[in-house]
Amino acid sequence: MKTYKFFFALALGAAMIACTPKEAEPAVEGADETSAVDVKAKTLKDFTPTKAEIDSVSYLIGVNFGSFIKGYDFGDVNYSKVIAGMKDFVKAKGDFRDPDFGKQFKISPDRINDMFNGYLEKRHNYKLLANKEKGEKWLAANLKKSGVQATESGLQYKIIDAGNPDLVPSPTDTVEVRYKGTLIDGTVFDETAEGADPARFTLNSVIRGWTEGMQLIGEGGHIELYVPSDLAYGESGRPSIEPNSTLIFDVELVHVGKTVASPEPAE
């Protein structure tokens, strides 16, 4: 698993969502005098944030912290402790770079890197094992269903329409397909948009489950693929696919573009 380096300021939300200060406007002759007049003409009340402004900024600070929690996949944290930590930091005295700064907290901020990485590693390993076990259990039950078959690799499939037996793709062929990909809980993570052109790619450029499975039908065919994690994205996963996830694909093979062999060079 990747190890992250959490700088103290980052952990406190400074870099969760970059806040870029507005660049200063070019100097204009007489601008300072005008600004001074404007400020003098106003009262403290004019510069006191309204309750609505305070509430809005407070909410966006929460969004900022939420971005950090979600971005690093901390999961279900104890939000009362998050708020307590924020309050403790706001009340803290001195500079966080001072050696004794961390003594003001229940847990020293010096432990952020070790604790965060240890926690995230444990969550990652839990997902690896849990998803693997869920996938294996699901595949075992799925194999008992009518029409479902399995290959030696563990790929499961159900042929709905075999298509043209004379136009079966090989790994180096280009295929055009319409498809929908779902997780075993039914969540759709990818699909061909309705009305859009079919997806087009070389068959050996995708996950192994697809490369193997699409060779089981011909052009015009329709197949369901039930792909074990080791034939899909494995432990890496994808943004919308957790590591070790078993995937389901409903695929229509629209067109097969056969690879034309290059002619042998003349002697």
Give the gist of this structure:
The chain has six helices and seven strands, in the order αααααβββββαββ. With 267 residues, the chain is α+β, with helices and mostly antiparallel strands. The radius of gyration is 29 Å and the shape is elongated.
Jot down its keywords.
Chitinase A, domain 3, 267 residues, alpha+beta, 6 helices, elongated
3D architecture notes:
- With 267 residues, this protein is α+β, with helices and mostly antiparallel strands.
- It folds into two domains: 8-117, no CATH class; 146-257, Chitinase A, domain 3 (Roll).
- The chain is built from six helices and seven strands.
- β1 (149-150) and β2 (156-161) form a beta hairpin.
By secondary-structure content and strand pairing, the structural class works out as alpha+beta
- β-strand amount: 15-25%
CATH C-level class of the largest domain is Alpha Beta
Mean pLDDT: 87
Q: What's the shape?
A: elongated
Terminal CA distance reads: 54 Å
CATH architecture of the largest domain: Roll
Number of domains: 2
Poorly predicted tracts of residues: 8-21
Oligomer: single chain
In the CATH hierarchy, the third-tier topology of the largest domain is known as: Chitinase A, domain 3
Q: Output the number of helix runs.
A: 6
Largest sheet: 7 strands, antiparallel
Task: Please report the total strand number as a whole number.
Answer: 7
Percent helix range: 25-40%
Query: What order do the SSEs take from the amino end to the carboxyl end, as H and E?
Result: HHHHHEEEEEHEE
Radius of gyration: 29 Å
